[in-house]
Amino acid sequence: MTKYRSLLAGVVAMAMVSGYLNYESNTMNSYADEKKAEAPKALSFKMKDINDEAVDLSKYSGKVVVFVNVASQCGYTNQYEGLQKVYDKYKEKGLVIVGVPCNQFGGQEPGSNKKILEFCQSTYKVSFDMLAKVDVKSDTACDLYKHLSSVATKPLGAGPVKWNFEKFVLGRDGEVIGRFGSGVKPEDAAFISLIESALAK
Question: Do residue 153 and residue 72 come from a single domain?
Fold first, then answer.
């Protein structure tokens, strides 16, 4: 009888330990899933557009989005023309291009938001969306660019924005799927290929 009770006690103890371990495992998995769900995506942020109106980036959900930090007095400023052509070609298929003025690189975007808008519209006929001027690197970077630059992707990996006209491409799910350097022109084959692939999904 004593032997039977000892055996029963052992079985009960093992069941309790197993139940506890399963509880811990489920709790950790639930916590991990919750943290994953909380991880900010680029389109979860709120900003201001170039007319100083509040804009919720979630309005771009389901689109393929290109965020590009722009400047009016840069050697790459003529990329506005290529960006506009790409936008005109693919906007009906779901492409959005968003210009993000920044004055952190050589002081090449010194004007007010109004002057920036007048310049890019009068000089390059820009019709894609433009946000208000912000910082895109260092501790003062806006939350959007803190997120964008933290994502390890190709061909450029994670890290601070290095210069004007870097291009971040987001898929329809809001995830960063590509990052291209300033020297990569909007008509570059790899850039266009990624956009077309994302639009097809």
Answer: yes
CA dihedral 140, 144, 146, 152 (to 10 degrees): -160
Do strands 46-48 and 54-56 pair parallel, antiparallel, or not at all (unpaired)?
Answer: antiparallel
Domain that holds residue 147: 42-199
Catalytic pick from 74, 102, 120, 142? 74
Integer angstrom CA distances of residue 168 from 118, 176, 196: 24, 7, 15
Indicate if 146 and 74 belong to the same structural domain: yes
Q: What is the mean pLDDT of residues 37-49?
A: 81
- 49 and 107 co-located in one domain: yes
Neighbours of 74 (CB within 10 A): 17
* Number of domains forming the structure of the chain: 2
- Picking from 31-45, 48-62, 173-187, which range would have the lowest pLDDT averaged per residue? 31-45
120 an active-site residue?
no
Pairing of strands 95-101, 129-130: parallel
